[in-house]
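Sync notes, pocket subgroup
Present: LS, DG
LS reminded everyone that the earlier model was apo-only. Rerun requested with magnesium ion included. Inputs:
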Amino acid sequence: MPKPKKRGGSNNRWVKKPKPQKQQETQREELTVQWYPGHMAKTRRMIQENLRLVDLVVEILDARIPVSSRNPDLDALVEGKPRLVLLNRADQADPALNQRWSEFFRQRGCSVLQTDCKSGAGVKAFSGVVKAILKEQMEKWQEKGMLGRPVRVMVVGVPNVGKSTFINRVANRKSAVAQNRPGVTRGKQWVNVDEGLDLLDTPGILWPKFEDKTVGLHLAFTGAVKDTVVDIETLALHLMRLLARRYPAALKERYRLEIPDEFDAWSLVEQAGRNRGFLISGGEVDTERMSRVLLEEFRSGKLGRFTLELPPERREELL
Ligand SMILES: Nc1nc2c(ncn2[C@@H]2O[C@H](COP(=O)(O)OP(=O)(O)OP(=O)(O)O)[C@@H](O)[C@H]2O)c(=O)[nH]1
Ligand SMILES: [Mg+2]
């Protein structure tokens, strides 16, 4: 088994460097993901400062990882503000689990919407839901004669979850820059939807330390963490292991993998690379290329629709 080649993320002090040795289940490489650059701490302060200007906070979660994409600091950060949870990227997540997650949040008294901002599905319901949440407050405004006061909404979430795309969908125009990589939005931006609604776009934020390593991994799988701060081959190894346990049929179909009951995740990466014809001199598999392809095909949805986390009572099963 060849040694993993190039290793990324060399200059990030938060990343524990994996040992340069064969990647096997028995010598599993640890990968500790951390990414909390200065602009996230700055955004945190900006969110706090702007809170008094808004009537409601939209918390956008990634439907594929509703636990890991929930900022544990958010409750303290937006204390008391009415909140709406969006399960975005619903088109990339397991449909049955989208339903279960929506029920989970509803049972806990949260308003929740499933959205696919790529196609716009689910977005139409947004303004009605906001009005329903703010009904009493809006009636008070009317009593006070504050006619025409627009509803102001702040949109928050982890990097790359789709905040700017969501805002563009609601506004029906490309006001906010949206791209498929984390850390695109760098400052606050108000977007006026119509005379009744203003949306505030914010840069994606994470938090200083992931208490659970799985959280960091899941955020890195989905593209909420910059790829340059993690080792791509180690990340792919972990993703391969998780998918081989949970969604083996998708791997079998896309990469023609044979997955035994007792499998070695790194061998599966190699097997997939070989089947794809990713070879380098001497017939070795280009595992770095295969690792990038696996992550890209998972993130783009080419591999299928996956939800990596179940509602909490059964979450242990997936970790
Ligand atoms: N498939 C799918 N892709 C989406 C969805 N929402 C957003 N995207 C894509 O995700 C990528 C990131 O979207 P952005 O809107 O830039 O994400 P963001 O949360 O503003 O990211 P930052 O500003 O970096 O924090 C873009 O390529 C979008 O097209 C969705 O519901 N489904
Ligand atoms: Mg953005």
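DG: The domain at 231-318 is CATH 1.10.1580.10 (Conserved Hypothetical Protein Ylqf; Chain: A; domain 2).
LS: The chain has two domains: 38-201, 231-318.
Action: DG to write up.
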